[in-house]
Each structure stands twice: as C-alpha cells, then as structure tokens.
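Is this the right way to post structure tokens for a design question? Let me know if I should format differently. Anyway, here goes:
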C-alpha cells in the first residue's frame, strides 16, 4: 500500500503538469476551433526559458514563472497575429501551419542552444520531502499540485467572472453578432491564444526539475494533452481537470503494476474504448459555434 500511495502521489503531480498544458489547449481549441500542433513547443519554450533565466540570471523557477508566462505568451500572440488569424475556419490549413511552426521552433532551439539534454535545479525553498508514515511526498511536487489547482481556479474566474470572459463567450456563440455590438473578435482571439500559450510555458518551466530539457520534450506532453481535451469534452474546464487526473493516475498506476511501456498501452486502450462509447467526452460543451 505504501508503494501504491507513493505512485499515486507521483501520478497526481504529473497530472497537474498535464492539466496546465491541457487547459491552455482546451481554451484555444474550445473557443477558437484551432487545433494547435505547436502547443507542445510552447511547453518546450517555457522549459528553455526557465533554464536560461536560472543559468544567466541566477533566478529559480518560482521567480521566473511570470517572465516565462509573459515571454511564451508573447510568442503565442505573434504566431496568432502573423499566421493563425489568416486561417480561421480552415482547420486543415491550421493543422499544417501550426505543425510547421512547431518544427521551426524546435530547429531554432537546436541551432541556438543545441540538442543536448539540460537540467534545472528545483528551488531550495521547496527542497526536501513531507513524510506521512511510509509515504514520501516531495515538497516540490506538492507545490506543483497546489499551483496547478490555483491556475485552474484563476482560469475559471477569468472566463466566467470578467469582462474578457464575457466577450470570449459571446464570440464563441456568434462572432458576427458580437462584432455588431462592438466586440473586437480578433483581439479576443489573439489574447486567448496568448493566454493558452503562456499556460503551456508555465507547465514547461515547472516540469524542468522533474525531467530533462530537450527540443522534443513538448511532443509527448501535447499528445497526452489532446487526449485529455477529447476525454474531458472540448471546452470544458471541469472535464479537462477530471481527464487530467484520470490520465495521470492511470499511467502511474499501470506503470507500477506492469512497466512503463505496457502501462502506456493500457491507458491508450482505455481511452480508445471511452471515446468509442462516449465520443462527446465526459463533460461535453453545450455551446454550439
């Protein structure tokens, strides 16, 4: 049982990282209908930004979070303004364009930093473990879980309790009518894309003490994030949170019972069966575009 609880805690911390990646993806896909295949590269940029801030400025991850959010969000905003905005309502073109953007970002990092794996130290403030019985919980992983929960709540408040969220919901329901009332849909879309990219950047920064930093690190996370969005229901924050927990915990527990490869296969089979019998997801969005 001690091994089970330790593995469950590790799965919960990884589910929290996945949640931050998937929330940004769910907002972009659910509100704009854009399948952003470069979302994983936003995660990667956040990780490299955290590494650069620590190496060149001596600042730990906690201090770098706002800078990473703003920096990666700015990159997302530039990509939306320069490329994505011209491809709305052309999903296939959007997929190809964002896939190409992702490749370009990866190659730029390879040329500028190199292909070797890099490592980031966890903050000294969060070093150590919380031990309850025989269950050992890393203080850093606890912080990640709490921070991801705070991000989820903040995003929900942004979308449901602010003027920007009201405008976004209006644009989702009917862009043309919204513009007749003076809402600048393009501005709403660009800020939404930037916010989703910024969240992915934060996730990349927070995962750096747990995994090595490489140009392709975001590819694996974005695949899981797409699965989370589909399972939870497109555009549903509650569904995204629940699905992140399911995928993260299932992967951790199946990996414990079998091995990493077989655990991954078991999770994917379960997801395929779920999609087969409930293609709309666990919490389908009721708004129609």
């Amino acid at each position: 049982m001690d091994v089970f609880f330790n593995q469950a805690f590790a799965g919960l911390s990884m589910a929290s990282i996945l949640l931050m990646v998937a929330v940004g993806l769910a907002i972009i896909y659910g509100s704009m209908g854009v399948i952003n295949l470069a979302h994983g590269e936003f995660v990667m940029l956040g990780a490299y930004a955290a590494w650069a801030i620590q190496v060149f400025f001596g600042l730990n991850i906690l201090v770098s979070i706002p800078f990473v959010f703003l920096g990666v969000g700015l990159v997302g905003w530039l990509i939306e303004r320069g490329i994505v905005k011209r491809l709305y309502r052309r999903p296939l073109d959007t997929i190809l364009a964002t896939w190409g953007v992702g490749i370009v970002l990866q190659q730029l990092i390879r040329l500028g930093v190199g292909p070797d794996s890099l490592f980031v130290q966890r903050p000294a403030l969060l070093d150590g473990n919380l031990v309850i019985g025989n269950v050992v919980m890393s203080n850093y992983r606890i912080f990640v879980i709490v921070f991801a929960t705070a991000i989820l709540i903040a995003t929900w408040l942004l979308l449901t309790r602010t003027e920007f969220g009201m405008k976004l919901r209006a644009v989702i329901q009917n862009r043309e009518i919204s513009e007749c009332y003076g809402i600048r849909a393009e501005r709403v879309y660009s800020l939404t894309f930037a916010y989703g990219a910024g969240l992915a950047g934060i996730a990349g920064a927070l995962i750096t003490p747990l995994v090595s930093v490489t140009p392709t690190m975001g590819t694996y996370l974005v695949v899981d994030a797409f699965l989370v969005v589909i399972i939870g229901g497109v555009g549903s924050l509650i569904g995204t949170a629940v699905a992140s927990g399911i995928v993260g915990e299932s992967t951790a527990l199946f990996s414990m019972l079998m091995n990493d490869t077989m655990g991954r296969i078991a999770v994917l089979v379960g997801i395929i069966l779920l999609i087969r019998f409930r293609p709309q997801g666990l919490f389908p969005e009721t708004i129609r575009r």
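Format looks fine. Someone answered above. Worth noting: The CA atoms of residues 61 and 206 lie 7 Å apart. Strands lie at 129-132, 135-138.
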